[in-house]
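Sanity check. The docking grid for uracil depends on where the pocket ends up, so I'm generating a full predicted complex first rather than guessing from homology. Inputs follow.
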Amino acid sequence: MAERLDKVLSSQNFGSRKEVGSLIRKGVVTVNGELVKQPDYKVNPEADTISVHGKPLFFERFVYYMMNKPGGVLSAARDSQAETVLDLLPPELARRGLFPAGRLDKDTEGLLIITDDGDFSHRMLAPKSGVEKVYHAVLDAPIEAADMEAFAQGLEMKDWTCLPARLRVLEEGENPLVEATVCEGKFHQVKRMFAARGKTVLFLKRVKIGNLELDPSLKTGEVRKLSFQERQAVFSRTPDSPAEQGEG
Ligand code: URA
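Predicted complex below; grid placement will be based on this.
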């Protein structure tokens, strides 16, 4: 597909359209070995070799990052007051159009995907995709069999009924550590589900989306690119998801 050279370079983190325009006019950009000085020159970024200062560009239409989100940071593109997850990106990973695909509360930690691919995000979040999200939660009270049952049946909320979810106790005690697997992403979904059972979430961390697990080597606040396989893992069924067990 033919696109303007300045638009392509700007999309690849070379600066604003204006900055990129003057870069091109300076004569430091070649297309298939030929010097090009017109910002509106048409290129096919997937097929043409575009070089800046002699360095060939590795064109990426979209990028996909995994972040280990820290608490205290907003899952939003930009905010005039508060620090957002995009503020944490190292400059070499920053580019226009990035946004968090699905939000975590300010105090929630863990796996967050940041991308500029709206279709990917939409597909991941659409309830009909059935992509499961796994959370680890520390609660203010022990879990009982009735809680497990209620989660499995689909909790009755004030204005909706949750889809069936799974609950697993990882550490027993007065403040148990539990794993909740849900495939909805309503506002405060997990906190509200536990609140419906009379429990308060003291700490919440997302550890998995579909079959993509939070990389344990990624420190809080760190970001890295997702591989193609990891992107696909988001949409592959987990071994114990209902669809795999013939229930849906
Ligand atoms: N559910 C919540 O309550 N909060 C989150 O951040 C994510 C899921």
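Relevant for the grid: The longest helix spans residues 17-26.
Also worth noting: The first strand starts at residue 3 and ends at 4.
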